[in-house]
């Protein structure tokens, strides 16, 4: 991947990053919002150090570790990516609670339209705000959106040092097992 300059990152604040989505996916992964590297490249979870792609493979969702530029391959594996909020930022804490709540409303509409079997929100704090569920914990949620079940996952950002690659892969693996069980 070519080196992105600070000016290019700053200019990416106005870019929208298209979803990787299709009807009837097994799992629709949902980030908090695009980072500036994602917005600059147009590829989800593109910042070096973000653990989404390694964790996706380590948990068994993909047969090999995909690169962000290979995100278009996800639907062939029954997977997709969207975000709670569309506005790119350098840090997720730049988003307002109002943006996250509105993003939750839009996300519910998207899920109702595309009907994935699972919605997996990568970031429990953003999930709590977007869905008004202050007591939510990592794991399967009681909430459904239509027939779509919901799972809160740890945020794969390198800033989330509390979760290691191994422990994150274990949690994503629990979702993968639940999704496989559901399909049987």
TrEMBL record:
<protein>
    <submittedName>
        <fullName>G/U mismatch-specific DNA glycosylase</fullName>
    </submittedName>
</protein>
<dbReference type="GO" id="GO:0006285">
    <property type="term" value="P:base-excision repair, AP site formation"/>
</dbReference>
<keyword id="KW-0832">Ubl conjugation</keyword>
<dbReference type="GO" id="GO:0008263">
    <property type="term" value="F:pyrimidine-specific mismatch base pair DNA N-glycosylase activity"/>
</dbReference>
<dbReference type="Pfam" id="PF03167">
    <property type="entry name" value="UDG"/>
</dbReference>
<keyword id="KW-0010">Activator</keyword>
<keyword id="KW-0156">Chromatin regulator</keyword>
<dbReference type="GO" id="GO:0003677">
    <property type="term" value="F:DNA binding"/>
</dbReference>
<dbReference type="InterPro" id="IPR036895">
    <property type="entry name" value="Uracil-DNA_glycosylase-like_sf"/>
</dbReference>
<keyword id="KW-0805">Transcription regulation</keyword>
<dbReference type="InterPro" id="IPR005122">
    <property type="entry name" value="Uracil-DNA_glycosylase-like"/>
</dbReference>
<feature type="domain" description="Uracil-DNA glycosylase-like">
    <location>
        <begin position="18"/>
        <end position="173"/>
    </location>
</feature>
<dbReference type="InterPro" id="IPR015637">
    <property type="entry name" value="MUG/TDG"/>
</dbReference>
<keyword id="KW-1017">Isopeptide bond</keyword>
<keyword id="KW-0804">Transcription</keyword>
<dbReference type="GO" id="GO:0004844">
    <property type="term" value="F:uracil DNA N-glycosylase activity"/>
</dbReference>
<keyword id="KW-0378">Hydrolase</keyword>
<dbReference type="GO" id="GO:0040029">
    <property type="term" value="P:epigenetic regulation of gene expression"/>
</dbReference>
<keyword id="KW-0234">DNA repair</keyword>
<keyword id="KW-0227">DNA damage</keyword>
């Amino acid at each position: 991947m070519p080196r992105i300059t600070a000016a290019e990152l700053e200019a990416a604040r106005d870019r929208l990053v298209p979803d990787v989505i299709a009807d009837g996916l097994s799992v629709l992964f949902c980030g908090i919002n695009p980072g500036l590297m994602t917005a600059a490249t147009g590829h989800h979870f593109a910042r070096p150090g973000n653990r989404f792609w390694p964790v996706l493979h380590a948990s068994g969702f993909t047969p090999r570790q995909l690169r962000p530029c290979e995100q278009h391959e996800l639907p062939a594996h029954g997977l997709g990516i969207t975000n709670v909020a569309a506005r790119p930022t350098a840090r997720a804490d730049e988003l307002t609670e109002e943006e996250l709540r509105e993003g939750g409303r839009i996300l519910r509409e998207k899920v109702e339209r595309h009907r994935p079997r699972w919605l997996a929100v990568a970031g429990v704090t953003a999930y709590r705000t977007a869905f008004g569920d202050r007591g939510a914990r990592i794991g399967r949620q009681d909430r459904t959106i239509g027939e779509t079940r919901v799972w809160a996952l740890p945020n794969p950002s390198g800033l989330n040092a509390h979760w290691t690659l191994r422990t994150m892969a274990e949690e994503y693996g629990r979702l993968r097992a639940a999704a496989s069980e559901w399909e049987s």
